[in-house]
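ugh ok fine here u go
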Amino acid sequence: MTPSRPYLLRAFYEWLLDNGMTPHLLVDAKAKMVQVPQQYARDGQIVLNIAPQAVVAFTMDNEAISFNARFGGVPHQLYIPMAAVLAIHSRENGAGTFFPPEPAYAAWTEADAAADPKTADAEAKPKADETAATSRPDGRPTLRVVK
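structure:
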């Protein structure tokens, strides 16, 4: 069977708009083929306002979502494959849904990791200096001398 995510996403999108809500997408910013402004991503994820008044040239099909939007006044062309869409929700009250993993998308992401094992290993293993800088249990900021 084909994945249900594009159909459910369109249904939730229309439902949120019909109820006067602002639809937001939660996207895996590090997924294969995702084109989003990475400087606005946190922990590998980005939340995007996809309300009609916030985007231009919005298209959503069974494969991907694409549109133009401004970030900090700078225009960007965004492209989000359906496999990278994690959730849709309302900004006002959080109504929406997280999408469960689907076999078609699991195979897509596994094929990406298998195609480039060096990248997968590099992402899985933090560098020694990153580990030292982030291993503080109290969460306080640290400083280190860079020469």
